[in-house]
Amino acid sequence: MKWARVVDNPERATKNASPDDRLSIRFISQNELEANYGMWTQYKFPPNFKVTSRGMRDYEMMVGGFLMYYDDIIRNAVVDHCVYMEWDLKEEEALSKDGHNKKYTCGGISIYVHPRPQRKSADKYPALHTASQAPPLHGAVHTQMEEAQATAAPDYGDFVDPPPPPPPPPPSLDDSDSSGH
Among residues 125, 141, 99, 115, which one has the least CA distance to residue 32? Predict the structure, then answer.
């Protein structure tokens, strides 16, 4: 898993990057983003949704971990994705007490991946699973399964590979910096 960073001159940025950055960041142009990256998921937030720079970084790390786990464990390292996150920041607000954790009003986040996410039609992969699709059971478990109603799995529309990460958590009610600084 790598992070994509949009820059004006990807070759120069790659050349000037530190060895650590070259391992984790793919420098791309805006044209490459539009041509080679596909929308993975998008979350819209309610009006006046507040995020902090630390909250954005924490969510980006969670998404990176989610994608790395998916690539390495679930897909057995068959695909190595690159992710680009675009925050819809509307306005900057006051700095926190220590001056390090800026607060923003955020309209949403769009997450792009390369290679593009594969979408499979929901009619080929139904979201409804019934007891009749399960292997035969015996005794009391079988009776309970017959009596149970079919339950719908969450409907995400078409099946997406990789599956989208969960949305960011809502902002904390406590505006103080929980890092102890």
Answer: 115
